[in-house]
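Priority: medium. Attachment 1 of 2:
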């Protein structure tokens, strides 16, 4: 995250299923378009308020990263109790 933000790069596709580790335990985040498919409901769980309002900032990826860390810590997807994408969006906004 530090490298991405330092270089003012907005990834826009930071989701748990597109973060991998190598045999050397290096973190690998492949290009956005070659990542495994996710449902719209699952994708929206990691999208920042700015992302949902189509006003991307460097903070958008930080939000997604925070959601991923919460999932790692708890074992649950963000907003797991909510299954409707519109309701998830309302909760985030």
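Attachment 2 of 2:
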């Amino acid at each position: 995250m530090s490298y991405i933000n330092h270089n003012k790069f907005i990834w826009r596709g930071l989701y748990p299923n597109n973060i991998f580790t190598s045999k050397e335990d290096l973190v690998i985040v492949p290009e956005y378009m070659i990542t495994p498919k996710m449902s719209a409901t699952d994708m929206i769980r990691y999208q920042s308020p700015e992302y949902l309002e189509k006003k991307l900032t460097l903070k958008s990826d930080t939000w997604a990263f925070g959601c991923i860390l919460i999932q790692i810590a708890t074992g649950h997807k963000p907003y797991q109790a909510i299954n409707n994408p519109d309701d998830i969006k309302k909760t985030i906004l």
